[in-house]
Specification:
It contains 4 helices and 2 strands. It has about 150 residues and is mainly α. The chain has a two-stranded antiparallel sheet with strand order 1-2. A hairpin with an 8-residue loop joins strand 1 and strand 2. The chain is globular, with a radius of gyration of 17 Å. Bound molecules: zinc ion (ZN). Zinc ion (ZN) binds next to helix 4.
């Protein structure tokens, strides 16, 4: 159980929400075309900077956390750099970068229409290394210790 009285609890929650933002937009990078991959990275970058700040000022500037954040950032940049033919991804069933089957889960009904769309669509193989690094960033050994949240 997460201890709300622990002096670092609010800092851990801050890290948790930055990581959630990084995670959400990494999904978007994995299936985006052309410059929109870079645009999604530009949404993520302030969260990476916030995570570095949290480590520096609230987690005693731990080398393990710093290195894990840097590895996440590098992995995101390599996702941004993956090129593909630029076809509109919404109509594809396979990842345009690696040709794996696209993963979909959840659904919602956009305002004013009669159909539902998947809440999340992403390429699992493209995000595998990233997902492992994100788990590391949540861990107590190499990250912010978010397992209990
Ligand atoms: Zn892929």
């Amino acid at each position: 159980m997460f201890d709300m009285d622990h002096p670092q609890s609010s800092h851990r929650f801050a890290a948790y929400h930055q990581i959630a933002l990084v995670h959400k937009f990494a999904y978007a990078i994995s299936l985006s075309t052309g410059h929109s991959r870079r645009d999604f990275y530009d949404i993520i970058k302030p969260a990476i900077i916030a995570l570095m700040w949290l480590n520096e000022h609230r987690f005693e500037n731990r080398k393990e956390i710093h290195d894990t954040i840097a590895a996440v950032d590098q992995e995101l940049l390599s996702l941004v750099a993956k090129t593909h033919h630029g076809q509109y991804v919404g109509e594809l069933t396979n990842c345009p970068a690696c040709d794996a089957l696209i993963t979909e889960f959840g659904s919602y009904k956009p305002h004013g229409v009669d159909f539902t769309v998947p809440e999340y669509r992403y390429c699992e193989p493209c995000l595998e290394r990233f997902a492992n690094l994100l788990e590391k960033l949540k861990s107590a050994s190499d990250g912010f210790g978010l397992e209990a949240i």
